[in-house]
């Protein structure tokens, strides 16, 4: 009996011990396991953070010094401009005046020099079409000028550019250019009309040396520096077409004897002859004045 009871108690104790071991093992499984790499990662992150902080502090310090220098020192003392380079066409530009204007900016600070003011002042020059000013590090300015291209004489003191801009100039030096004149606010329209008409006249060997429009909108032409033609203000395209249709046979042979051709009529045109031509007509010299009648 004693042995059997002891054996039973021993089995119960073993069973209880086994149950306690199983519970302990389950609890161990549920607990998060520490990674072997975790301490290494923590060390690496701390090292990177320290490095970042050092670089950030260094950069911040440098920026602070630069900003302080810019704001505390006089701007004229920071990289003063000591060279100004000018490029572009200058056939008509008065470079003496432009150079003198730009000399005022020598010695000014690279950051403080007023680029827009330079452009504005140089744009006031009559022959300047456009201006570009750039800073060239560390102490230079680059000025690029585009010159106006004169297309025609507007009056005795002004020219008309190829961009339809009327500007002050000594037009007497440009007698080789055609004369175009009208209302100043219609300069672009006049320039376009001249170009279209000249394209048609060129086919007949004619050069429009003058084209003017008066206050009533009447158009007047001078052809080949000699022949005056009053077109009028109505049906101009049709009148010009009629002029060109008779020019080769009727007008060109007598052009030197014609004062004016007047198209201000609804059904035709009239011709005013020179005194020389009328004298030839009365003298009967038909060979010199031509055989065809207009």
Description:
It is a single chain. This protein has 294 residues and is of the alpha/beta class. Among the domains are: 77-147, Ubiquitin-like (UB roll); 178-289, Cell division protein FtsQ/DivIB (Rossmann fold), CATH 3.40.50.11690. Helices cover 43% and strands 21% of the residues. The protein is built from eight helices and twelve strands. The chain has helices spanning 2-30, 38-72, 95-103, 115-123, 187-202, 236-251, 275-283, 286-289, and strands spanning 83-88, 128-136, 140-147, 150-153, 158-161, 166-168, 179-181, 208-213, 219-223, 227-232, 258-262, 270-273.
Map the helices and strands.
Layout: H1 2-30, H2 38-72, E1 83-88, H3 95-103, H4 115-123, E2 128-136, E3 140-147, E4 150-153, E5 158-161, E6 166-168, E7 179-181, H5 187-202, E8 208-213, E9 219-223, E10 227-232, H6 236-251, E11 258-262, E12 270-273, H7 275-283, H8 286-289
Parallel strand pairs: 1-3, 7-8, 10-11
Antiparallel strand pairs: 2-3, 4-5, 5-6, 8-9, 9-10, 11-12
């Amino acid at each position: 009996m004693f042995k059997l009871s002891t054996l039973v108690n021993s089995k119960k104790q073993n069973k209880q011990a086994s149950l306690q071991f199983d519970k302990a093992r389950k609890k161990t499984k549920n607990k998060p396991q520490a990674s072997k790499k975790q301490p290494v990662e923590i060390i690496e992150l701390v090292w990177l953070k320290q490095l970042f902080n050092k670089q950030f502090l260094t950069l911040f310090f440098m920026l602070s010094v630069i900003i302080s220098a810019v704001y505390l020192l006089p701007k004229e003392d920071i990289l003063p401009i000591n060279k100004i380079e000018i490029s572009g066409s200058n056939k008509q530009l008065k470079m003496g005046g432009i150079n003198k204007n730009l000399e005022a900016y020598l010695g000014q600070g690279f950051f403080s020099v007023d680029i827009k003011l330079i452009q504005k002042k140089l744009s006031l020059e009559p022959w300047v079409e456009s201006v570009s000013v750039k800073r060239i590090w560390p102490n230079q300015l680059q000025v690029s000028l585009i010159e106006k291209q004169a297309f025609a004489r507007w009056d005795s003191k002004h020219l008309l550019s190829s961009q339809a801009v009327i500007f002050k100039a000594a037009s007497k030096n440009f007698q080789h250019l055609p004369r175009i004149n009208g209302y100043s606010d219609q300069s672009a329209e006049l320039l376009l009309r001249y170009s279209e008409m000249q394209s048609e006249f060129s086919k007949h060997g004619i050069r429009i040396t003058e084209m003017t429009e008066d206050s009533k909108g009447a158009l007047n032409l001078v052809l080949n520096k000699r022949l005056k033609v009053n077109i009028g203000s109505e049906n101009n395209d049709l009148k010009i077409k009629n002029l060109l249709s008779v020019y080769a046979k009727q007008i060109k042979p007598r052009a030197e004897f014609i004062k004016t051709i007047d198209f201000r009529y609804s059904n035709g045109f009239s011709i005013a002859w020179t005194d020389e031509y009328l004298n030839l007509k009365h003298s009967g010299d038909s060979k010199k004045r031509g055989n065809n009648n207009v």
